[in-house]
Hints:
6 helices, elongated, Mos1_HTH
Amino acid sequence: MTMIDPILKIRTILGIDAKTIYEELTQALGSDTPSDRTVRRCTQRFRQEREYVNNDYRSDRPVSVLTDENIERVWQVIEDDLHSTYDDIIAEITLSHDTIERIIHDCLKTRNP
Length: 113
């Protein structure tokens, strides 16, 4: 939770619209103000009664695909053919390039396939 989240939550609970909150933050914080879009997104989520906005699922961070099963599957493809490329692994497992790269580097601690 960032330092601004409680401010956004309280102002949203008080019924203040996102545009006004953004203007207040800009006046108080100047160039350190989050973008208008960020303020609108956060206030919308707080209206939906979310406690924290930073812990939401993010499509650019698919943690749920870093499962033991997927790690084992990637390892198996590499073990079966030590000359496997990322494209070979993607074709076999249907995970994104970024996910496979994260598994290889972060989980398996190996170099490129």
